[in-house]
Amino acid sequence: MRLLENNIQSYDFYIEKENMRDEIIKGLSAPVKTIYSKFLYDHRGSELFELITELEEYYPTRTEMKIFNEKIQEITLAVGDVHTLIEYGSGSSNKIKALLHNFASLKEYVPIDISREYLFQSSLELAMLFPHIKIKAVCGDYTGPLTLPLEAEGKKVIFFPGSTIGNFEPVEVRNFLMKSAKLLDDGDGFLIGVDTKKDTVTLERAYDDAKGITAAFNLNLLTRMNRELGANFNEDQFEHLAYYNEQQGRIEMHLESQRNQTVKIGENEFFFQEGETIHTENSYKYSIGQFQTMALECGFKPRKVWTDAEEKFSVHYLEK
Fold first, then answer.
1. The Histidine-specific methyltransferase SAM-dependent domain covers which part of the protein (predicted)?
2. H or E element at residue 198
3. What φ, ψ does residue 254 adopt, rounded to 5°?
4. Residue 278 has pLDDT above 60, yes or no
5. 36-74 pLDDT per residue, tens
6. For residues 254-267, b (16+ Cβ closer than 10 Å) or e, as one string?
7. Which of 155, 191, 193, 250 is most exposed, with the fewest beta carbons within 10 Å of its own?
8. pLDDT in tens, 248-259
9. Cα 53–chain centre separation
10. Contact status, residue 242 vs residue 227, Cβ threshold 8 Å
11. Could you give all domains of the chain from N- to C-terminal order, each with its CATH number?
12. 8-state DSSP, 39
């Protein structure tokens, strides 16, 4: 534990390079080359994603924020008195600020993220805005086993905005919800943003914008591997690819090789055929009923759901 400011404690549980190297080599050695989307979010990746959230085409952040702006009093009433708020992902957005401002009984806030620099930067910003709340910044992988420095008393609520849950495979969603339930006691809650199903054109524009910022976000993964793992990817020989897989109900993002080539990471060599891809992200879309059914199967009761007028996005409050 490290004390950053009077009301911030930092906990570093993530051994970044060892974890990253092992997982990426395993993913690139698979029959279908795949890298987990969490590795898109180094400091530069997080900055680029913040730019994506401001794009006209990228509706999820804007629509979810509109729901919070319009329904914050209903959300606050539904959630009730909260002692501890746990956020999966670094809390720099206006959504977490709205909750920290409106949860009058809140004593501690625990953001969890693998992007160390971005996590501590956002925690320092929030500490200045909310000096009465104890902030415990945890650098760690919230998708894996994690022991959190939580106080015993009071109601706990997990906050998971932005439809990041869509990046998980359906079986992973169930495991993730069940793991999250183990952090909570009966009566504790889970406030989560979930993107809904909609037309293909709207979905594909959101993940392949005209300015090319999403492409830069995706390609930054190659830059990161070169810098941190000593790889020799040539960004100019890969292109961003995003499309809606209607059968699977998900947007897929890939990096497509533009030629036959071999890439090295240390002693490991990976051959790419022209047109072969690295699958870097899925974003599953769920109807309200689909998601509530999964939540029920994993130890949660759906208590309330809020949407925009067009039902482009949903915010669910679940109770253990």
1. 20-319
2. none
3. -135, 160
4. yes
5. 998 998 889 989 998 999 999 999 999 999 999 999 999
6. bbebeeebebebee
7. 155
8. 999 999 999 999
9. 13
10. no
11. 7-14+58-197+286-319 (3.40.50.150), 31-53+200-284 (no CATH)
12. G
